[in-house]
Amino acid sequence: MTLFIVVGCILLLVLLTTWGKVNAFIAFLLVSILAGLLLGIPLSGITKSLQKGVGDILGSLVMVIVFGAMLGKLVAASGAAQKIASVMMKIFGRKYIQWGLMVTGFIIGIPLFYNVGFVLMVPLIFSVVYKYKLPAVYLGLPMLAALSVTHGFLPPHPSPAALVLQFHANMGMTMLYGILLAIPAIVIAGPLYARTLKDIVAIPLKTFQSEDLPEEELPGGWNSFISALLPVIVMAITTVGVLIFKDNPALTSFAGFLAEPSIVMLLTLCLTTFTLGINMGKRMKQVMAIYAEAVKDIAMILLIIAGSGALKQILSDSGVSVEIGNVLAGWSIEPLFLGWLIAAVIRVCLGSATVAGLTAAGIIAPLMINSNVNPELMVLSIGAGSLMFSHVNDPGFWMFKEYFNLSIKDTVRSWSIMETLVAVIGLLGVLILNRII
């Protein structure tokens, strides 16, 4: 019965936003309240769940998204995006620019948290889209597929790192196996699948669009790339710093503070305010006006993401994930496939890859005690399952939809299927490696 309630609420959400034309934020709140009532949460508990869900997801995302939008707007307005697009086109050529962006996404995705990578990469994607009139989804999906795979498969991202500790797996071997699985997953779900999406018409957010500037008014190539990719540089330095100074608590704490995504983005914004703003002849008032305009453009995105957080919290507080997981755990199935299946079902029902991965790990851990399952492969199996079919209850789905300005149908056809391909290819890779090692 619980599963029918969850499915029914998700279908209602889709109907409200598509057929009913209800604002997605309002639709999320209405469906969340209904789900709470049907799943037996007390009225006072529903209110607390809504507030906690909205607060938790905005607490972790609002600064990252806002600072990312400001950075993206400045990168576009200063001409840095135009410069980056020109340089990348010279390096890869029009024929291989998609693959170039994909490799960039994979490299950047390893140290950066997914949400930071998303808001950082989207302006670069759009700069190439606008300058060379290429299909936005066709060009951008491979890069975002790379970010998604690193988020689900590879430490130090939250879910894989936690699973490595919980299963006592080897971090290095998990990384090695994860990269082996990531390559075919990204290639198939990215460039190859994106070939079928050239007909999708997407008009991305105008925040990251600017008129072409004369070559002499553009910032230099090094300035453009370093300024736009500064979060990656800061994150890499702080990560290495934590390892180098692990015996010095004060320095480790300071490096850990600097590695927080919101702090990374704030530091980046402060530096780029000078490198791409003041240094390029803009006054501080002009730069601040650019930032204010950027926030206006992403306000609704923040509300929609907040709404998805409310629904996720209602489903989590109702105990749906544990109930579904316990039912599936009673099935007599190959452990690696069972771990993937539990994570996949929870992901589809709740929307959060991290929640799906951690919940599945807690359920599957007792089953591994008397088995000979490879712990590194179990980490990857659950990680792959946690990416299964992202749809309307996942904040990532709405970020992609709103930034690329797509219909729900086209978002499912592109984003949701890409995530499903990644999950299935990851599972197949795990089962093949299990036969070899």
TrEMBL record:
Which controlled-vocabulary keywords does the entry list?
Cell membrane, Membrane, Transmembrane, Transmembrane helix, Transport
Residues annotated as transmembrane: 26-45, 57-76, 96-129, 136-154, 174-194, 225-245, 257-278, 298-316, 336-365, 412-433
Please give the chief subcellular localization of this protein: membrane
Q: Does the keyword NADP apply?
A: no
Tell me the Pfam families matching this sequence: GntP_permease (PF02447)
Localization in the cell: Cell membrane
Q: How does it sit in the membrane?
A: Multi-pass membrane protein
Family membership: Belongs to the GntP permease family.
Checking PANTHER family in the record gives: GNT FAMILY GLUCONATE TRANSPORTER (PTHR30354), HIGH-AFFINITY GLUCONATE TRANSPORTER (PTHR30354:SF22)
Q: Which NCBIfam families match?
A: gntP
User: What is the name of this protein?
Assistant: Gluconate transporter
Q: Which organism is it from?
A: Pedobacter gandavensis
